[in-house]
Request: fold
Amino acid sequence: MNEHSAPYEFHLPGVLRVGVGTHTLIPEEALLLGRRVLVVTDANCARIPEVAATIASLREAADAVSVFDAIPGEPTTREVANGLVAFRAADAEVVVGLGGGAVLDTAKAIAIMDQHAGTIGDYAGRDRFTTGRRPLILAPTTAGTGSEATRHIAITESATNVKMLITDWRLLPDVAIVDPLLVAGSPRSVTASSGIDAITHGIEAYISRRHQPTADLFALDGIEQLNRGLQAAWQDGADISARAATAIGALHTGIAFSNSSVALIHGMSRPIGAYFHIPHGLANAMLLPTVTAWSLEGAPARYATVARALGLTDAGDIPGYLARLGDDMKVPRLRDVVPPERLMAVAEKMARDAIESGSPGNNPREASVDDVVRLYDACARA
Ligand SMILES: [Fe+2]
Reply:
């Protein structure tokens, strides 16, 4: 579809600072952007020693530091509105997001909504913002969403419980800081599901109909690094070289899908998250093997390249390999989390939501509503 003669664009955060100890650079990077700082985090992240030390260093160096940590789970429009109140009450100039995907998405939303009227829900969709955002630094504490390097925010409308995707290049931060020390405290279940989500980003970016040569480089490298580091990081969370491979891998696959796209798996996982309150990474991890098996015939040569990035020789080996990877890291099956009859009772509605989201349209094998219903059924039996 997107042959390499087709024009494309490629965007990155303004600066990447990557590697062990780079979290200590946050204060100096923040002060280059402003003297009054709002730190966006959550209560769990704030207990990570490196996060606490960063906030303490900021307090010493900046004119004023406020902390907004009231983000209880997947972010909603309410958290964004409250965070914006905190930003303005502090007369802040810079937003520093320190946390997982929910925290980073909230930080992005606060930085841009300070410059826009209305609520974040008014900007759902693509390229709806009219001007820029406040200075923004993002540092992830999980290796998964790649939010520090994507143009996306996933946010739930608190009044209606509808999950929205907001896409704009202005949501890329000025500085992304990826320090393996910040992800070293992730518990095993988060390491597994967010790591497989990150592999899904790389695979979907690479097989997407909107693939492009520059994003391809990041997708394949990210898949390789995640494949190399993920199980070792799951076995021993203190293995910093394994954590580094997952953190850099997730950064690279985030860059990849931000510039190309995700596809059918993300399209199908969002409704599961919305209807059954399943965390994003887990929903993707549970769908990945079965949906990949179905999609293979749409892009055999591209999947063959993905297979090599995973250390396999044949595209047909990918689904079984990914299923074993999930099993080895004790990722639950879909049927263990959602009773199949409950899933299938809303499968057609979820399938329509999935198709409407647009992501399945990027899949190399085209999926109808009936196909998606059958795939939910197959995932429920896997
Ligand atoms: Fe994802």
